[in-house]
Amino acid sequence: MWSADDVARDSVRRQGGGLTGAVVAERIVEAAVRERETGRALLGGAFSEYGSEPERLAAVWAAKHREWRRVSLLMDASGWDAYEPERDVQGSVWARERDERRQGVLSGHAAQLARRQDERDELRTELWLAAGSGRLIRAAADRAGLRPGEVLAQLAERVVVGEDGTVSVPPFSPSR
């Protein structure tokens, strides 16, 4: 769901708050080393120590390297003694965009879960009625301009179960 840049920006923003320029410079060096190591591992085929997604890890370290350099340049240009994520305009825009995408994904996931629950609650059945009951349902359906299954669905929607377990349906007129 998250790009390497998203992961790097979020990580740097969370870890960088309050760091001085010297510490940010150390982070740049560390990210550069990790970027080279993961890049070499990809070229040399040494995947096992980097897990099942070595390409992704290499991309994330490259993105972290870029992001730490961006933060360093911002601090130098702004004259900051320490990195303050709240004052980082571009970083704040990216963070808001990430949060909006995250909320969209969470909302979509919640809606999908609700649809699945509704589907689980649905009941599909094939019903064989005795001739007499079938004629009554067909007659009610014809009068209402409905199919017999639609009349049965409306009937089921109006079922009332009493405290003693008795089942009844109050009088109603099937309708579209």
Task: Furnish the topology, listing elements before pairings.
Blueprint: H1 4-16, H2 21-44, H3 54-78, H4 89-121, H5 131-144, H6 148-157, E1 160-161, E2 167-168
Antiparallel strand pairs: 1-2
- What's the alpha carbon Rg, rounded to whole Å? 32 Å
- Sheet with most strands: strand arrangement: 1-2
Low-confidence stretches: none
Helix content: 55-70%
Largest sheet: 2 strands, antiparallel
What's the overall average pLDDT, rounded?
A: 90
The count of helical stretches stands at 6
Question: N- to C-terminal separation?
Answer: 44 Å
Number of strands: 2
Beta-strand percentage range? under 5%
Descriptive report:
The protein is 68% helix and 2% strand. With 176 residues, the protein is mainly alpha-helical. It has a two-stranded antiparallel sheet with strand order 1-2. Strand 1 and strand 2 form a beta hairpin. Helix 1 crosses helix 3 (54-78), helix 1 crosses helix 4 (89-121) and helix 5 (131-144) packs across helix 6 (148-157). The model has no long low-confidence stretch (mean pLDDT 90).
